[in-house]
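Homework help thread (please don't just give me the answer)

Our assignment gives two proteins as sequence + structure token strings and asks us to describe the second one. The first is just a warm-up. Here they are:
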Amino acid sequence: MTPKNGPERIVELLAGTTLFRTLAADDLASCAARFRQAKFSKGAMLFARGDPGTQLYVVSKGQVRLAIATSEGRELSFQIAGAGSLFGEIAVLDGWPRSAEATALTETSVYTLERSDFHRLRSTNPAISEAAISFLCQRLRDVSDRLEAIALFAMHVRLARFLLTALGDRQAPPGQRVPLELTFSQSELALLLGASRPKINAALSALEAEGAIKRTADRLFCDRAKLARIAQTHDA
């Protein structure tokens, strides 16, 4: 199958995002026409905390880490944005400076939409405003779920929940495990879950001991049913 590119690729990506997926085909095409492609090398910063929020981004290829860094140098990653992920929308919607920084973890290709273009689209298409409200509500639910996980769940339970999210809808034939390639390090995973690297390694060992995963050098093989059972454990 020939890979999609240009406007067709942008429409495909937008149709998979919470912000744009409810739009009709013609509206999606109108939005896609406003996007522009940008490429970043590994380690490049797309924007820093405090920068003006002039663009929103949709990842076409690669991975982008979204994180908050303190003046003491501590860092908390809260999202690894892969292909199809949308980010940078909060500052575009409210006009305030960036609340986090974005760094390319790999060679990355994104499509960007200028804030002025986004608001022109909103003014001519009420469905975009309605989609933005739904999108922000979902963001609030996600934040609530993250806070609940940090407050209530042991690390191996939080990791099980994370792995289930990473697996998405992928299934394996009966009696087999679902392979999952984590393209970021244990250190990155620790930042994402708000833990130390040793705690992540201990949590991986705990999941492996319970038969929920098997580890190789470059991937995990996941038992969805066992991960789901562990993810429902509420003991902190």
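The one we have to describe:
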Amino acid sequence: MSLRDIFVAELDSNGIAWCRGCERYGAHGRGFAVKETRTVHLESQVATRRTLHRGLHEIGHIVNDEAGMRRFEKELAANRFAERRMRELGIPVPRSEASKGRAYVARMKRWGNNISKAR
């Protein structure tokens, strides 16, 4: 089973749609999730462990109960979801993605909604 197949199976098992490209991408970078429509927007073809992690992270935003969480807590929960699912599937979590995720959460915790000023 390919990484793309694993991602699609995860989407299907959670009742989530995959949008591979639309007008909403410009402001959202590499990927994002819309909880209300249960849609993951991800342009990647999901061919590497890194892109699988990114896709699972976005799924995590939809399946996690994020009510009452601060923004950095939502990102932390989504990262944990992605890493846990990859471990459950027997797929090594890319160190670079785990590292980037921790750094992003730390910056977000420090800067909150002004994270774009943190760069």
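TA reply:
I won't write it for you, but here's a hint about the kind of observation we're looking for: The helical segments are 3-13, 49-63, 71-88, 95-111.
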